[in-house]
Amino acid sequence: MNQHANANGGTExxxxxxxxxxxxxxKSGLFGPTLQLQAVRGVNLSVHRGDVLxxxxxxxxxxxxxxxxxxxxxxxxxxxxLYRGQSIxxxxxxxxxRHIQAVFQDPYSSLNPRKTIGSIVSLxxxxxxxGGAASIREETLRMMDMVGLPARFxxxxxxxxxxxxxxxxxxxxxxxxKPEIVICDEPTSALDVSVQSQILNLLTDxxxxxxxxxxxxxxxxxxxEHMATEVAVMYLGRIVEKAPGTALFSQPxxxxxxxxxxxxxxxxxxxxxxxxxxxxxxxxxxxxPSGCAFHPRCARALDRCQRIxxxxxxxxxxxxxxxxxxxxx
Amino acid sequence: xxxxPFVSVSGLDIDLEVPGGRLHAVRDSSFDIALGExxxxxxxxxxxxxxxxxxxxxxxxxNAHRSARRLRVGNHDLLSLNRxxxxxxxxxxxAMIFQEPMTSLNPCYTVGNQMSEMLIRHLRMGRRPALTLxxxxxxxxxxxxxxxxxxxxxxxxxxxxxxxxxxxxxxMCSPKLIIADEPTTALDVTxxxxxxxxxxxxxxxxxxxxxxxxxxxxxxxxxxxxVAVMYAxxxxxxxxxxxxxxxxxxxxxxxxLECVPAPGKTRPGAHLGTIPGTVPSLVGQxxxxxxxxxxxxxxxxxxxxIPALTVRADGRQVRCLxxxxxxxxxx
Lengths: 329, 331
Prior knowledge:
The complex is a heterodimer. Chain A has one domain (2-326): P-loop containing nucleotide triphosphate hydrolases (Rossmann fold, 3-Layer(aba) Sandwich). Chain A has nine helices and twelve strands. The relative contact order of chain A is 0.13. By secondary structure, chain A is an alpha/beta fold. An eight-stranded mixed beta sheet of chain A has the order 6-7-8-3-9-10-12-11, sandwiched between helices. Chain A has a four-stranded antiparallel beta sheet with strand order 2-1-4-5. Chain A is 28% helix and 23% strand. Chain B is an alpha/beta fold. Chain B is globular.
């Protein structure tokens, strides 16, 4: 099983995916046949304690499906997901939610508008019957303070709060059970730049104080570079490259990673609009291209990329799925 | 003046009637744009950037009041036009590209139908030549004519393709002014770069003047000739792109630039700059500098009168009582 060995000196991963596949049945047209859409295709991945693992990729690449499986709300079709070596599909939901929590993209729709902030933040404690009313209230206020929400918001409703404050509520709710892993699905995408930086700083501080592990999903590569210790690049349901953040950003090895990084537009008036030869469209996930799924858009595609699925290369620098690694650059 | 600006806006005010009173969405906004130039209006949500665009196009919601000293595009005085005349101008002289092409394309009609409609309405073309021209335009925006796209419905296209259709549609009648409101915000980064290329290329080729609205300082830096930074309904700083990004003079512009993670410099565990506090309410009587409540340099004078937009030595306009020397050399 050396395929699942990791770079972090053999410590057991906190969360591990083994050959995980998830497919959905899709109807093609009103009377058409039912097709299988493989949103995630045979993914192996491990998350270690203290990591900030970022999942990057274009829309439709399967990153949200993968995250939902990690949360345990969506079972994999094949393969298994292990939390501390135990399959999470076998552990009860209540047990799982104590250790793995989530923060979602839209703080406007993820909070119940008819509940007070105090009630929203304390709900996990009440569900898990942790302590009496007085201690729950005390713990809730402590958590609110920790995420920078003043105690006067305890009896407020979500519509009285700004977007940034609502996202703080969502973070407080996720952290109140003292989970080990927090899945952050586009946590700042709905926020303005000045609020985004506040939330990212908060996540950074909380990680340090509470020794948290994050799985971060974002389409904003600036945010990823700022936050991630490990980055996994997804393309059409596969992880095509995984490497430590600094290495991936300075030396991308997969041509898709390269294209993604060069498409990032930073505030630099000396640079023009980047040129990317990725072609016009993302392939249809219902009939993924043969061989390497990326070959129709790859400028350096070889003959064999069309026919043969690329091998997975594990080495000291990370994991890459590409034929070009065998070819001298 | 030898060269009259192509777009000239002076003293634009837009108020909205809301339950609590009057919301001053745009306050005393003035800018000129030369022919073929790109002006970026940048700001956060609620800063009034989209309202400025809608005000210029005459597309404001019914609870809005618009007033201005001057609102001119080419030879047209927009203030004196009625709805019909404005509708004639729209699409032909000036066109708008919105953020989400799914909501601006009609889901019930084919792409070809919607595209030819523009030509039939504005250029009085026949159906057949209109469809031929529509096909040519799709090719020009990078959609191969072989794919039968003209017979497809908007939902059959990806987000990037829809935005290309939208751009083709808006450029077909050769407008002289394009207002693009966050045209790439809903798209993936890889597609964003392609769409920006397309827009910038066609703009240069056709000599179009562009107002580009965005919250993304990265996009601003790559396509704008000049930038207007809006905050709380006002332009707080305006000038050439390079100067604004390299040497911001308004504390808000400076704060905003510090909030963006800079690739190569940023690393996990580090802190980003923040702008504490929240945007002030724009309802009712307003006084002082809109940014005073969040500005680390705010002084007593900032809460008195509303600061004027003053022109500095390099032609930059800044709405701040202090010069950058007074603000950040002391720190």
